[in-house]
Amino acid sequence: MAITLKDVEYVAELANLELSQKEKFKFQKELDNIIKYIDQLNELNTENVPVTSHVIPLENVFREDRALPSLSQDQALANAPQKKDGFFKVPKVIG
Amino acid sequence: MKRGEVCSEEIISSVFDQIKKANPNTNAYVTLLKEQAKESAKRIDDRRSKGENLGALAGLPVAIKDNICTRGVRTTCGSKILSNFVPPYDATVVRRLKEADAVIIGKTNMDEFAMGSSNETSFFGLVKNPFDSQRIPGGSSGGSAAAVALHMATMALGSDTGGSVRQPASLCGVVGMKPTYGRVSRFGLVAFASSLDQIGPITKDVKDCALLSSLICSHDPKDSTSLPEAESNFTESLEGDVKYIKVGIADEYFGQGLDEEVKEAVMKGITLLEKLGMKVEKISLPHTDKAIATYYVLATAEASSNLARYDGVKYGFRPEEELDLSQMYKKTRSEGFGAEVKRRIILGTYVLSAGYYEAYYAKAQKVRTIIREDFSKAFEKVDVIITPTSPTTAFRIGEKIDDPLTMYLSDIYTTSANLAGIPAISVPCGKDSKGLPIGLQIMGKPLSEDLIFKVAYALEQNL
Questions:
Q1: Is A65 an 8 Å CB contact of chain B?
Q2: Which residues of B are marked as active site?
């Protein structure tokens, strides 16, 4: 499958990335190349093959629902680029 | 140290002298912790003089890859987007090293978000190979490998998603191990591809590697994929009889693309093990050529999801200007991530997007099963599998950076162990005619770390 410039623009939008024209052209070419390489997986018949959802099978383990010490509000906010009155500050969400 | 001939403070101060000499040329460290390290060393010396019991790594200088969280110490992941991030907690592995009285001396440079095989993608500048400053040290744990190779740390931690511990260890002439998936807690490791990521040690020799592994391999309730296995002391089983061990070699790992000198050195290593009494047998891992394609679908898909959290709200970089919400997300991510990270987010988003999920992501998850089965079948016949770690020795800076696919193929011999979840170690097995180190890889069944250490030790001691 070939990757078009439109694909790159669409996917960048989904991933919340803004690309320059130059980046778009570069990624289109590179990703097209990589996807063509990845297409070799189609040489394998995987009709009855299960997917690997976990590489070393583990049994689900439930733990007791118990409160343990966690980060304080100050610690949780310490790395926030912007904060106000003990909250994370973000641009207006609802107009 | 126990005999009082040398104290921790002296060791730490001599390591910082060495860092002062060697780090400007290699750029192995992003952050150095000289004052804290000296204080911890002093505390350990005090406790030793009082006759207190000390941990297994008492006073030893250890370096930590900069994608492993250290409480109160900046953890950048080699990225602008985390360049000011100071974790409020320690990763489980860091906590365990501190409990063993190790002295953490700094955070090592790496490819941005551990995405790279050459350490050229770090926001903090590239790392140079300790043997030739025109060449790359391998990646993504290139800083950790270069630091250990140049005695700027006694041992280091790295992380391995597709070879990021083993390939730089191989290219820098040191030992690096990727444990069985789930054997080391990922709590506090900045996530890249969660089903493949595993923290691993990088050390000067196999014994140190076994020692450091014994400390970090343990169950952790904070990691839901952590295995329930009890802790092991891998240093106890290094010596002893090796004649019962069956070694497998697969043609798929010795074919096109493999440098002749690398091939020769690895074959010499295998012959040596045969002389020690191990039985060498041909096996086949027929789907090896599909590993890179499978890996780059799964790793980028998981990365695109894991890296969605970098949105400029809770931590990390965010542009100063006033923007609306959607613009704030986009500017944060577009200015915060470098080119390779963007490339992988876009590829990962593409393979997960509507209409392509089945064709790429689900397909790769099935091929992953086929690759795992190759290994299960091989391990019915043999105990360990020996291959080269990397198809070439260290390549030149800039040689592959403009060609992502060629760069991805540098991991051709290492990604399979991540896909299959099995343990694998890289040990030095000689040098090429340019004087560059060559690494030999030993892979084992899940949870057979003790056995791969034993084979690695036998090779190292008899080489």
A1: no
A2: 65, 140, 164
